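Extended Data, record Kinase-like domain-containing protein
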Amino acid sequence: VHSESVVHGDLTSLNVLIDDKGRACLTDFGLSSMVKMGEKFDYLRPCAKMPGAFRYSAPELITSQIKDNEDEDGGGDEDATNSLNHREVKERDIPSPSSDMYSYGCIMFEVLSGGVPWEDYAIPVVVILTGKTPERPQSRDVHDEDWIFILQCWLSLPPLRPVASQAL
């Protein structure tokens, strides 16, 4: 989808279906954005309020969501906190190809390990924000190059993450 200037914005294993030919197909484009060469055509606020989605969310989107919740719940200027339309949207707030690649790494981890990322944590937000990654699965099916790619997807600096074409 990135080659078509689309950012999914909500990649989880639940949004990947396998067709009758064994091909992975993405679903649930409700939070998708269209981008073109750094310009934003459309933007929908990411929905990371469901605890399960946090397991697949890039840290920069989680910090954005936490900031949004503090703005909505905390005191301060009521006009600024009542509506997100009045809030300045920064680049870190917007799902990006890099945040999709972080999520892709989480899906790869789940496929290769058989477990969800950070499955030992009911709410893994703090662990994700510290930059800690799940331990490498002990399965023989997890090859070194796959594990290295997953770790690259989880890099804390979005520009250092692989691009989608490298996953093919």
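Summary. The two ends are 12 Å apart (CA to CA).
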